[in-house]
Design goal:
Oligomer: single chain
Radius of gyration: 18 Å
Number of strands: 6
Shape: globular
Order of helices and strands: EEEEEEH
Helix content: 10-25%
């Protein structure tokens, strides 16, 4: 059961970040990011409605895994700062999301988390005094 009311049309687009020509999703859902670079535009209030006035570039900042939705890309708008979560389209037969781009995003996030740990605690367990 969908939790949103889809409006508008399932349309292809040219990515404003990398220039890729992106076809609509084959399953009839609304594609909201480029499958090559994972960037998007802040154009929707609800999926497919194209009613958001912001129009800022949505940068992929994280990737999560959900048991129900699979891979989910977290985007942050470079204009207004809003964060949005969008399901990855890894199963699209025409132009699936680039697996290497998803892995690189996850790796970048992991590296950022590791750099925030205190220097003495990376991967080491403290020994208990005897």
């Amino acid at each position: 059961m969908r939790r949103f009311i889809a409006q508008g049309a399932n349309q292809g687009f040219r990515c404003d970040f990398c220039g890729a020509q992106v076809p609509p999703l084959a399953n009839g859902s609304y594609r909201n990011h480029c499958p090559r670079c994972l960037h998007s535009r802040h154009v929707d209030v609800n999926p497919g409605d194209r009613a958001n006035d912001c129009q800022g570039m949505l940068e992929p900042v994280a990737v999560l895994h959900s048991g129900k939705k699979g891979w989910v890309i977290v985007h942050r708008c470079q204009r207004c700062g809003e964060e949005r979560r969008n399901r990855a389209a890894s199963d699209d037969p025409l132009m699936p999301d680039d697996h290497e781009a998803l892995v690189a995003l996850a790796s970048r996030e992991t590296a950022a988390l590791a750099s925030r740990e205190p220097s003495g605690s990376r991967g080491r367990r403290r020994r208990r005094p005897r």
